[in-house]
Amino acid sequence: MTNPLCDVLNLKYPIIQAPMAGVSTPELAAAVSNSGALGSISVGSATTQQAREMIAHTQALTTAPFNVNVFCHPPARRNPTKEQAWINQFSEMFHSFGNPAPTGLAEIYATFCHNTAMLQVLLDTRPAVVSFHFGLPEPEAIQALKAAGCLTLASATSPNEAQYIAAAGVDFIIAQGFEAGGHRGTFLDVATDTQLSTAELLPLLQEATSLPIICAGGIMNGADIARVMKQGATGVQMGTAFILCPESAANADWREALSKATPGDTCMTSAISGRPARSLNNAFCQATRTVLPEDIPDYPVAYSLGKALAAAAQSAGIKGFSAQWAGTGAPYARQESAARLVEILAREWQRATAGIEPHL
């Protein structure tokens, strides 16, 4: 059987390790790519110099294709009154951690949209794959990347978004189900997110567009891979499954919380960053459960407070205030090296496809 993703990139397996900003590392991406799948790094939270160094580091560790992900979020709408009210809401918490609250918030991540400097980094380094999250950049950027030989991917959470991506000339669509960990990629209908599961989203996107579709969300083992591939997916993107790999940058608190996760231990929150994202239901999520969405500053301005609060908590030895993104499959994350995990997933997928029951 031919597979469009494997054929165009000469992959052994149509498995993508998700480009989790702050978690994926050159070591993780290279280990996955060297094992025959597609490793990923994210430069969405990086400066141009950091991005150039990350890509060069990854290229030094592998000659296989890998993916570089960028964030295409709209610029934040700054509202000083709302931002000060947000700071005030957390002042007592900061002081309980022995730190003063910040005096102001910042737009900590630059969007890739109209970012000529970051585009030039990608055109100079020419990674095999570039993927877009939170929407798409301007048409000229997509055309330039494709002319440079980069395969392009973009996340969709609805049929409307899939059609928008297809019309822009992107090569593959990532169908991000509501189960997926981390930030929702919703960009056309953020206020009316229909929260479609991966199983619901895949057939709708197949009907909406002829582009090959990669499924993301709730995919943790080979049986999950076999299920969506049987339904017509071209490949899978898996993030939570790789967080416990030693090559990831997840900190000890995150690893401990993920390794203890039980079914239902994740929630969707906008309070950490200003955009909806699925996280382990940690202390930060519980403390902000009643926060009204309209009171939260825009992404990534709210994230600057979230990161400051996490640092203050960590300095006080308090756990559970950092962003601990994870999908609904969190209880099934495994502590394996990246190469070993790819090997296990491939074997499980092959057995499931052949109808062989897994070993108990």
Automatic annotation (TrEMBL):
> What cofactor requirement does the entry state?
FMN
Oxidoreductase recorded as keyword = yes
Keyword line: Detoxification, Dioxygenase, Flavoprotein, FMN, Monooxygenase, Nucleotide-binding, Oxidoreductase
The record's listing under SUPFAM superfamilies reads: Inosine monophosphate dehydrogenase (IMPDH)
Cite the source lineage. Answer: Bacteria, Pseudomonadati, Pseudomonadota, Gammaproteobacteria, Enterobacterales
Q: What is this protein called?
A: Nitronate monooxygenase
Instruction: Please name the GO terms that the record assigns under molecular function.
Output: dioxygenase activity; nitronate monooxygenase activity; nucleotide binding
* Similarity comment text for this entry: Belongs to the nitronate monooxygenase family. NMO class I subfamily.
Species annotation: Mangrovibacter phragmitis
* GO annotation, biological process: response to toxic substance
Q: Does the keyword Nucleotide-binding apply?
A: yes
For this protein, the record's CDD domains field holds: NPD_like
Question: Which reactions does this protein catalyse?
Answer: 3 propionate 3-nitronate + 3 O2 + H2O = 3 3-oxopropanoate + 2 nitrate + nitrite + H2O2 + 3 H(+)
